[in-house]
Protein 1
Amino acid sequence: MKTDILFTGKGHAGTQAILESEFAVHKLHEAGDRDAFLKSASQKVRGIASFGAAPVNGALMDALPRLEIISNFGVGVDQIDLDAAKKRGIVVTNTPDVLNECVADTAIALVLNTLRQLPQCEAYLRAGRWAEKGPYALTTSLGGKTMGILGLGRIGEAVAKRAMACGMQIRYHNRNRKDVPYAYDPDPVTLAKNSDVLMVVTPGGPETKNLVNAQVLDALGPKGFLVNIARGSVVDEPLLLKYLQERKIAGAGLDVFADEPRVPPEFFKLENAVLFPHVASATQETRKAMGDLQIENLRRHFAGKPVLTRVV
Ligand code: 8YV
């Protein structure tokens, strides 16, 4: 008999195929009538494999009284109500570390693309303007600039290494100071004030909602750049749009947005922003490694062994 698990969304195809071969899978995202679907699954489902931003809240947990584990595809678990899981004794796992290098690659690509305007340079050439109008306008160097990392965890450290290789200096702010060779700032405003590039790498969720607010963007100032590879919720998005339109900051590189995959169309008109469709971990190798970890956590849990990467 296969163990019953539930998918919350469409996700990495290879991972979902393996899960479907090993478990009896119920696909919540394909249910026409969600209530009827949950009613029929309620006495069977013992695990959730969560994919994407679909919320896993207390109501969903209550609809599945036999639920023992939520195994998330991704390091960020902001869509899961962790307190609700804890109260109900439900294990939550994620997929840390295996994505650090890829996410850091994307972060540094956003810094290069934003300061050096490389996507705009390419569009300029493809539109025939090089021959027509001459060289593209001069841009901004990375070397000698300061990157302020808001949320220096394992991904932040991988970003710092790459930024230093580009000749940048590193500062950071975390709630707690770490034993690292980088200058510490006591709050996000001071960090922004001391930085040319503010790199947002914090977890998402209520604790960091709109952490990058008017005070932080004002401190970053008209010569400062914002890069966000964390969650859209960490930045006040309407305000960021306004600051970019009015050039109250110099530019932004964004891999994440508040209501993905919907991006306010006003962002598309900005010349001082580089926008990626949440691709930081999106390589064949890394997504496979994330999926393998998600699957292994489920296997181990149902075999009565300790999971590998427990959050709650
Ligand atoms: C993925 C991510 O885009 O790990 C995370 O927290 O945001 C990304 O790696 C996401 O998990 C894919 O659904």
Protein 2
Amino acid sequence: MLCTNSLFRNRVFLLAFISAPISSVLHAQSDSSARPKVLVIATGGTIAGVQSAPGTLGSYRAGTLTAEQIVGSVPELARYARVEVEQFSNVASTRITTQQWIGLARRINAVLSERTDLAGVVVTHGTDRLEETAFFLYLTVRSDKPVIVVGAQRPATGISPDGPMNLLSAVRTAAAPAAVGKGVMVVMDDRILSAREVRKEYQRVGGFTVGEMGMLGVVASDGPEFFFSPVRRRGADSEFDLVGVDSLPRVELTFSFPGGTGPRFDSLPAGIVVATTGFAPGEGAPYRTLRQQGVAMVTAFPSGDNVNAPSRPPTPRADSAQRDTSAADSAARAERSAPLAIVSQHLTPQKARILLMLALTKTRDPRELQRYFLAY
Ligand code: SIN
């Protein structure tokens, strides 16, 4: 009974807070010019989710609360930053399109170059596509200022919502000088994860991980503490400036599997990423045909960790120096005559697809495409 009462009081407090005049909430947060300024750009997701029966395990609508309401529900933010808000969209993240990625990256690039007073940016986002949006921003936000992507796995009106704490940790990280130059990051459950490595492993609090690659740091009670820095190109050093890019080339994602015979397309995509640990006998020829038809092909491990992939660009193939005479060598000959397959070392197939879409806005040369896969 005690629990039910206190749960009810908490819900009443949250709902009263959410419906409080937003101007007063934001005013209370802007009392000191000494705190860094952080812009929170909201896109929707469970962090903005509201249930029809608050305080239950019941269903909810993602992308319901506004940016102001999300920020207004965490008064503690005022201790660490002067927070400004902007609403980019308010949708479940499965609805995010590549057009919206381009628009979001452009908006963040613009505010970070125009607003020298901003310490960093936080993007609130649904967790379903969080890792993909974060990696797109990692490749296309050309600034060293921190950009932190954050979400929640429980709705704002749920029992023990994780969004408020995640938002607080994200804002503290965006405001931290130690976060400068580390590329776009995801902060979930007090872990600081590189957007390059992060993935949603399960649909529960604590479900975001970087596999064997290691988290960059943690947000402790004293604030963000970093252990590592990424080494690959990112941020201000990225070549992907989106100048003249209004849409991304079509890149398909397929799986290789025992007995597979390769995909069939009504119209050919510009590129294809195949999640594979090795092709089945029936798959080699169809994928080779796609390359011969001009489709750029990348192979990626389903886990994202192909530790045996080459770490250097391929040397030119000595086609004419090799003479295969037997019938058994015809597949090898055909392979040598087809454009190279590009290899992804340490990216999940979904992220390899994002890098291939961006790289295809620059070149269709497989060797040059491979260079992008080794650099980013
Ligand atoms: C979404 O991705 O928008 C819904 C799921 C979530 O945010 O956890």
